Amino acid sequence: MSKNICVIGTGYVGLIAAIGLAEFGNQVTGVDLDQSKIDLLNKGRSPIYEPGIETYLNRNFQSGRLKFSTNVVEGILNADIVFIAVGTPETENGEPDLTALNSVVEEISRNLNSYKVIVVKSTVPIGTNRTIHNLLRMQHSETLFDVVSNPEFLREGSSIQDFFHPDRMIVGCRTEKAKSLMFEVFRPLNVMSVPFVWCDWETAELIKYSANAFLALKVTYINQIANICEAIGADVHDVARALGMDGRISPKFFHPGPGFGGSCFPKDTKALVQIAKDINEPISLIETVIKANSVQKTRCISRLIQTGVSFENSTVAVLGIAFKQQTDDLRESPAVEIIEKLQSLGATVQLHDPQAMEGYKKVNKVASFFETSLEACEGADVVIIATEWNEYRNLPLEKLKNIMNGDILYDTRNVLEPELARSFGFKYFSSGRGLF
Ligand SMILES: NC(=O)c1ccc[n+]([C@@H]2O[C@H](COP(=O)([O-])OP(=O)(O)OC[C@H]3O[C@@H](n4cnc5c(N)ncnc54)[C@H](O)[C@@H]3O)[C@@H](O)[C@H]2O)c1
Questions:
Q1: Atom of ligand 1 at shortest range from CA of 159
Q2: Which of 38, 194, 309, 406 matches a 20 to 30 Å C-alpha distance to 8?
Q3: How many domains does the chain have?
Q4: What are the CA-CA distances from residue 432 to residues 250, 278, 328, 426 (Å)?
């Protein structure tokens, strides 16, 4: 049976959840404090770049199942189920900032006019769901609410596909009533044989952090193997393929590059380290991953400096600013660190990204931005490919070589064929494919 759902926070996670839950046939209101986001959404336009999103957005918008508002109170009052999907960014000491989450919980508490299930989709430290439950219990009877931990695993760039076809659903809850409501809401997934893991709050919270930390570890592992390949002349792709053929290892998340970024892995690894320290069970493995990743991000620059390149007064084109392809998200992007490091070394930086330039123009007033990748590379001494956008796989190499001032092409994402690039006269560097 269709439910009235309010999704609080219409960012990368909340917007997809709102659209997906409406697609399942529910009446959904997505609410956000950001008036500009809501204005865009009410025009049927997405405030984020995500492949395919506007088709789903408009279909559910036009069906009347999906609406958007800045009126958080009304959203809560009319809902049977309230999903919390506000940001939990890291504070200066690496812990998650729960300011937005806490203010939403207070708002829910003030407006708990009927039984509601409060579903926490945001990634939160261990014990947060229990704290929310205890806070609500101080004001209301336990029969009036249930708190459910339902961490999100979508990947930006394929988040619609991930919402409708998750590997599993994690649901941490305490009562049968909440369990059956969650089951009903996500029945379409169950019909598609998506496995559900029913557990307690703390287990659900830890599953989210340990999954992200493990993936971060896997990325760091292949990056360090790639670094060894560079020194000994081996090919990391053959190594990764062979490792992935071992059923115990799996081939996913074995692509080398300039380190992990984005809004999740960096903050979630730090949060897990903090959680472990707080209970005196340090997770030194992940502490090492964080350190190794931070060196990896600008490894391309250190490597070039080692070969004698000086960046002072040079012109460097950086292709790609987003933290990965198919998103406009700049949070913790390795490309951004590369750009800032180049500028600090005295380079003039010319940039291109198919989706992330508008956002980055607001942040970096010194770099120059170009509509096409070739324009960005004109007159460059060095070109660095920092994001694996598909269009960079087809760079016209002959033209590129002719318009550049220099001949160094650093492909941190391995989107080009080394032999082909070298055949056009480039000094071609990659991540883990041969000596240089
Ligand atoms: N982005 C991802 O790929 C991803 C994947 C899995 C989990 N997560 C987790 O999901 C959560 C949300 O991440 P995100 O990337 O969607 O964040 P986001 O920053 O893109 O979106 C958060 C939204 O919440 C809104 N907001 C903040 N305070 C509010 C309030 N009091 N009332 C209403 N709206 C409010 C903001 O305006 C913003 O639009 C985080 O905890 C994150 O760790 C993110």
A1: 3
A2: 194
A3: 3
A4: 20, 37, 27, 17
How many A from CA of 123 to the centre of ligand 1? 9
Which is the closest atom of ligand 1 to the Cα of 264?
Answer: 43
- Residues 132, 236: one domain? no
Parallel/antiparallel/unpaired status of strands 315-319 and 382-385: parallel
Both 244 and 185 in one domain: the answer is: no
| Statement to judge: residues 213 and 119 lie in one domain | no
Establish if 436 belongs to a structural domain: no
- Are the beta carbons of 155 and 212 closer than 8 angstroms? no
Q: Which of 86, 99, 120, 330 to mutate to test the pocket of ligand 1 (most atoms within 8 A of CB)?
A: 86
The enclosing domain of 105 has a CATH number of: 3.40.50.720
The pLDDT value recorded for residue 435 is 66
* Per-residue CA distances from 358 to 49, 83, 144, 237 (Å): 12, 30, 45, 34
The residue range of the domain holding 36 is 4-199
Distances 88 to 48, 96, 123, 316, 317 between C-alpha atoms, Å: 18, 5, 7, 35, 33
Q: Ligand 1 centre and the CA of 18: distance in Å? A: 13
For residues 344-358, average pLDDT? 98
Task: Look at residue 92 in the predicted model and tell me its pLDDT.
Answer: 86
What's the whole-number average pLDDT of the chain? 97
Q: What amino acid positions are annotated as catalytic residues? A: 264
Of all residues in the chain, what percent carry a pLDDT higher than 70? 100
Containing 169, the helix (H) or strand (E) segment is strand 169-172
**CA-nearest residue, atom 18 of ligand 1:** 11
Q: What is the mean pLDDT of residues 237-265?
A: 96
Dihedral sign computed on CA atoms, order 414, 417, 419, 422: negative
pLDDT score for 321: 98
| Ligand 1 centre distance from Cα of residue 418 (Å) | 39
Pocket of ligand 1 (CB under 6 A): 8-14, 31-34, 37, 72, 85-88, 100, 103-104, 122-123, 152, 154, 156, 263-264
